[in-house]
Amino acid sequence: HAAQILTVDICPSNGLVCTSGKDKKLCVYDSKKAQLVKMVYPHLHWIASAAWSPNGHLIATGSYDNTIKVNDWKAISQESKCLVGHTDYVTAVKWREDGSVIVSGSRDGTVRLWDVHKGEAIHHPFLGYNPCNAGIGYQDISDGHTHTVTTVTFQEDMVVSCSLDKTIRVWDVKSGNQVKLLTAHKGPVESLSFRADGNVFATAGGIEKKILFWDV
């Protein structure tokens, strides 16, 4: 890399490592040989996030060009499948365990779900009163954060997101509704990780210099 590295991810199936950053490069390394095996430019701006698909065939990248690319790492090009919908920098991407859906977070404050095969955003029914038509309306999975979404992850039928707005939000994947709002942090929340059993997760913010643990 020729500039700051913004993300690193290890492939769960083959041990390859991908990195991306402010030089617009997506690099793939063989971790056993410590060798670079691929270097490409899938975006025209910084790549803030990169994540391997569960089967190791694809890499999702989120960029400051407001798009997500779904890349076959062996044949990455500017013609990779492009997911368009965010209105600001895409700061976080994550795959669902079955590899069919990507969740993304953005500086526009939204969290979105994407159907990988169709290359389209997934909208969820909002089961409640809609003043526009007094019936069932539709909403994106998130419109709740008021600042940049820093981290997103799947956990079974939930999506959990963290943000610079100091909050952690838990969303029901099927309905798109927010089911929990966690506000114990006093500063931006920048990192999230689940315990292996999925019952507890930890969050951290750099300014606070503390880690909080949450019982799902």
From TrEMBL:
<feature type="repeat" description="WD">
    <location>
        <begin position="83"/>
        <end position="124"/>
    </location>
</feature>
<protein>
    <submittedName>
        <fullName>Uncharacterized protein</fullName>
    </submittedName>
</protein>
<feature type="repeat" description="WD">
    <location>
        <begin position="1"/>
        <end position="39"/>
    </location>
</feature>
<dbReference type="Pfam" id="PF00400">
    <property type="entry name" value="WD40"/>
</dbReference>
<dbReference type="InterPro" id="IPR020472">
    <property type="entry name" value="WD40_PAC1"/>
</dbReference>
<dbReference type="InterPro" id="IPR015943">
    <property type="entry name" value="WD40/YVTN_repeat-like_dom_sf"/>
</dbReference>
<dbReference type="InterPro" id="IPR001680">
    <property type="entry name" value="WD40_rpt"/>
</dbReference>
<keyword id="KW-0853">WD repeat</keyword>
<dbReference type="InterPro" id="IPR019775">
    <property type="entry name" value="WD40_repeat_CS"/>
</dbReference>
<feature type="repeat" description="WD">
    <location>
        <begin position="182"/>
        <end position="216"/>
    </location>
</feature>
<keyword id="KW-0677">Repeat</keyword>
<feature type="repeat" description="WD">
    <location>
        <begin position="40"/>
        <end position="70"/>
    </location>
</feature>
<dbReference type="InterPro" id="IPR036322">
    <property type="entry name" value="WD40_repeat_dom_sf"/>
</dbReference>
<feature type="repeat" description="WD">
    <location>
        <begin position="142"/>
        <end position="181"/>
    </location>
</feature>
<dbReference type="GO" id="GO:0016226">
    <property type="term" value="P:iron-sulfur cluster assembly"/>
</dbReference>
<dbReference type="GO" id="GO:0097361">
    <property type="term" value="C:cytosolic [4Fe-4S] assembly targeting complex"/>
</dbReference>
